[in-house]
């Protein structure tokens, strides 16, 4: 079994900052790409940012220059530092990781989601 546990969501005023964390644990051999997605009410889930095991990153255009994704490979943890938050960033944020399990099978795993609410 593999688990992704997220933390760090909450309510913040526009212009503020939040930091999300997501730790992977369980039957892990290695963790490949990790990323953050978000889903606002009535909208499809969308990519926010991804980071490879080597540290290469890509971002949605809507968050470039405001959000920074990083990871700690020793802790199997990915972070999302969010700044200059806008009301349109309000959504449930989900962590995703491509994990090679100890059974040598690569599977995508999702966290339970954490609510981020930005007030105007």
Characterize the structure shown.
This protein is mainly beta and 120 residues long. The chain is 0% helix and 62% strand. It contains no helices and eleven strands. The strands form two sheets. Strands 2, 4, 5, 6, 9, 10 and 11 form a seven-stranded mixed β-sheet that branches. It starts with a strand and ends with a strand. The mean pLDDT is 97.
Overall strand count: 11
Span between termini: 40 Å
What composes the largest sheet?
A: 7 strands, mixed
Mean pLDDT: 97
Judged by helices, strands and strand pairing, the structural class is mainly beta
**Low-confidence parts:** none
What form results from the Cα inertia axes? elongated
Radius of gyration: 14 Å
Helix content: under 10%
Note the total helix count: 0
Q: What share of the residues does DSSP label as strand, in percent? A: over 45%
Order of helices and strands, N to C?
Answer: EEEEEEEEEEE
Secondary structure topology:
Blueprint: E1 2-7, E2 10-13, E3 18-26, E4 28-39, E5 46-51, E6 57-59, E7 67-72, E8 77-82, E9 91-101, E10 106-110, E11 114-119
Parallel strand pairs: 2-11
Antiparallel strand pairs: 1-3, 3-8, 4-5, 4-9, 5-6, 7-8, 9-10, 9-11
Short key terms for the protein model shown above:
elongated; mainly beta; 120 residues
Summed up, what is this model?
By secondary structure, the protein is an all-beta fold.
